[in-house]
Amino acid sequence: MLHIIDHPLIQHKLAFIRDKNTSSKEFRELVDEVATLMAYEVTRNMPLEDVVVETPVATAKCKTIAGKKLAVVPILRAGLGMVDGILKLIPNARVGHIGLYRDPESLQPISYYGKLPSDVYEREVIVVDPMLATGGSASAAVDFLKEQGATNIKLMCLIAAPEGVKLFSENHPDVDIYAAALDERLNDHGYIVPGLGDAGDRIFGTK
User: Fold this and answer.
1) What stretches of 43-91 show up as alpha helix (H) in DSSP?
2) In sequence order, which residues have a C-beta less than 8 Å from that of residue 44 and are 6 or more positions away?
3) Which pLDDT value is given to residue 11?
4) How many C-beta atoms surround the C-beta of residue 118 within 10 A?
5) In percent, how much of the chain has pLDDT > 90?
6) Beta strand 185-186 pairing with 192-193
């Protein structure tokens, strides 16, 4: 299922993220901020358990997050730009990494690295990547997670293309997609239109 998070603050910041005149410094800061805002919605259904807390006045019945909590798994390298935004809310989350790059001719994902928390199968996993373009990299990342035993997985991105949503949903119908925007299409080079360009290059200032 695709969830579009259209909170006004997210949409406002997304406009500046798209702007080609936004500097790398501002781009990184905005991606970080939007990731924090999106994390509120992505974690909305985390399980809770009852606890009793002593306040300065009396005893209070409260709720805390139950179980093993979260693992955040960025798809390298652009996904790194979204990790700190989530960790601001959930600093105890474990962080894994999946390294993939897209072959410029075939547009197919090529894997070069994978490192996950040892108990990833017990955690809710949020895979993060700013762009869901062809859907190939996200599908390959979730394939890897499932091979390691993960069963509770969500995908979080800034912008998605219809082609990527379709492919990913066909490959992983059990994984919900959270995006700030669904754009028009992919161009002949596999870039999202209108999109925001190459997220990795804009985050790290490499182009």
Assistant:
1) 80-87
2) none
3) 96
4) 9
5) 81
6) antiparallel
Structure tokens at 158: 């800034």
22 CB-near residues (< 8 Å, 6+ apart): 16, 30, 202
Contact 50, 63 (CB under 8 A): yes
> pLDDT by residue (tens digit) across 31-62?
999 999 999 999 988 889 999 999 999 999 99
φ, ψ at 83 (rounded to 5°): -70, -50
Q: What is the SS3 string spanning 143-195?
A: HHHHHCCCCEEEEEEEEECHHHHHHHHHHCCCCEEEEEEECCEECCCCCEECC
N- to C-terminal Cα separation, the chain: 34
Torsion from C-alpha of 140, 142, 144, 150, nearest 10 degrees: -170
Given the structure tokens 């219809």, which residue do they identify? 162
3-state class (DSSP) for residue 104 = coil
Tell me the pTM.
0.91
Structure tokens at 93: 């989350």
| Residue 4 bridge partners (DSSP) | 179
